[in-house]
């Protein structure tokens, strides 16, 4: 039995597709009412579909089938992997308390740590880590890292005395003692916009200082003269949970930085305080893959940073970028009544380290690896 529509209006069926939504809805209803649900109509519909499939280009169908097979293989391959999880500056490491804490400061106890331990097998260990990364992911973009690891001993021994990173040197990076603000413009501007936020949290922390003891969370560093204190939020790629909870807004700010090093042992973020009369001995940083950013919080007179023999002064609310793999020192020769020099220090990626290289370096120099 065939159902016949009550009325047929050819003009309605030829209505333009670009009609308003309400009109299209009405037309759809009329179109459904006009449809004849006969067996012959159903047969014609199926036959038309089969013919359309047959008319498709065989090459296109083969290409689609190949892409589908490749997608299924990729999903299977990725699903089998169990990639290493890294510590990030966006999540507090719950296990940090078990890794050794002294006065809120994380110390590395691993004899295999490439950041803290210098031994003859370091290059072999780095190369093993690189091979493991390449097997899991790809060798693509690893040429400069491979070259650096293969000839690491020559690079470190033959470097001029003005720049001599202690752990790892990545070759062919543009080198200079200081960098312009544009090197990491987004992060510099973000830090400077939050100057007051960081300063307020520091002032709250600094109220705990007294003459009789070092407040919880602070670390005193060795200096030829004076006192140098640091309060770490991230220390060698590991968050310090207790300290992060005491500076929640500054800690959250780290997660908004695009180039903050938070996944390997070369990444740090801390508040650094120099008391009047303090001189930090000349020293080299561990690597040239990072640039160190100092945001001035309190900058008395007669305070200087000297990198590669070039002096610079801090300014409150302004960032100063430098390569700490150069020989550098800092001092505060201002009068006691002017108070300490205070900066917020954070390590950022060197702008010429590519994204693929950053991922590989995070793997090779992961904390505790």
From TrEMBL:
<comment type="similarity">
    <text>Belongs to the aspartyl/asparaginyl beta-hydroxylase family.</text>
</comment>
<keyword id="KW-0560">Oxidoreductase</keyword>
<dbReference type="Pfam" id="PF05118">
    <property type="entry name" value="Asp_Arg_Hydrox"/>
</dbReference>
<dbReference type="GO" id="GO:0016020">
    <property type="term" value="C:membrane"/>
</dbReference>
<feature type="domain" description="Aspartyl/asparaginy/proline hydroxylase">
    <location>
        <begin position="192"/>
        <end position="351"/>
    </location>
</feature>
<protein>
    <recommendedName>
        <fullName>Aspartate beta-hydroxylase domain-containing protein 2</fullName>
    </recommendedName>
</protein>
<dbReference type="InterPro" id="IPR007803">
    <property type="entry name" value="Asp/Arg/Pro-Hydrxlase"/>
</dbReference>
<keyword id="KW-1133">Transmembrane helix</keyword>
<keyword id="KW-0812">Transmembrane</keyword>
<dbReference type="InterPro" id="IPR051821">
    <property type="entry name" value="Asp/Asn_beta-hydroxylase"/>
</dbReference>
<keyword id="KW-0223">Dioxygenase</keyword>
<keyword id="KW-0472">Membrane</keyword>
<dbReference type="GO" id="GO:0051213">
    <property type="term" value="F:dioxygenase activity"/>
</dbReference>
<dbReference type="InterPro" id="IPR027443">
    <property type="entry name" value="IPNS-like_sf"/>
</dbReference>
<keyword id="KW-0735">Signal-anchor</keyword>
């Amino acid at each position: 039995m065939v159902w016949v529509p009550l009325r047929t209006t050819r003009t309605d069926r030829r209505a333009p597709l670009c009609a308003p939504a309400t009109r299209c809805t009405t037309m759809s209803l009329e179109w459904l009412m006009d449809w004849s649900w006969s067996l012959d109509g159903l047969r014609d519909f199926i036959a038309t579909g089969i013919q359309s499939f047959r008319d498709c280009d065989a090459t296109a169908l083969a290409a689609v089938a190949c892409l589908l097979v490749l997608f299924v293989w990729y999903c299977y391959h990725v699903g089998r992997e169990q990639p290493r999880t890294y510590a990030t500056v966006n999540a507090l490491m719950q296990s940090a308390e078990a890794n050794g804490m002294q006065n809120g400061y994380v110390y590395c106890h691993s004899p295999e740590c490439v950041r803290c331990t210098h031994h003859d097998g370091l290059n072999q260990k780095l190369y093993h880590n690189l091979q493991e990364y390449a097997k899991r992911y790809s060798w693509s973009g690893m040429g400069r890292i491979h070259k650096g690891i293969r000839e690491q001993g020559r690079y470190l021994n033959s470097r001029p005395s003005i720049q001599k990173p202690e752990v790892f040197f990545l070759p062919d990076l543009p080198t200079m003692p200081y960098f312009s603000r544009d090197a990491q413009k987004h992060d510099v501007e973000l830090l400077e916009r939050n100057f007051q936020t960081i300063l307020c949290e520091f002032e709250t922390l600094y109220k705990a200082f007294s003459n009789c003891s070092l407040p919880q969370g602070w670390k005193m560093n060795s200096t030829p003269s004076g006192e140098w204190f640091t309060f770490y939020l991230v220390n060698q790629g590991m968050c310090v949970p207790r300290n992060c909870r005491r500076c929640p807004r500054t800690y959250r700010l780290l997660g908004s930085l695009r180039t903050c090093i938070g996944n390997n042992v070369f990444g740090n973020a801390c508040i650094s305080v120099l008391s009047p009369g303090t001189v930090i001995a000349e020293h080299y940083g561990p690597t040239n893959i990072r640039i160190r950013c100092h945001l001035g919080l309190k900058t008395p007179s007669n305070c200087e940073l000297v990198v590669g023999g070039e002096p610079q002064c801090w300014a409150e609310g302004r960032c100063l970028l430098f390569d700490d793999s150069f020989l550098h020192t800092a001092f505060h020769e201002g009068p006691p009544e002017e108070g300490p020099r205070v900066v917020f220090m954070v390590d950022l990626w060197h702008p010429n380290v590519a994204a693929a290289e950053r991922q590989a370096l995070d793997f090779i120099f992961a904390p505790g690896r």
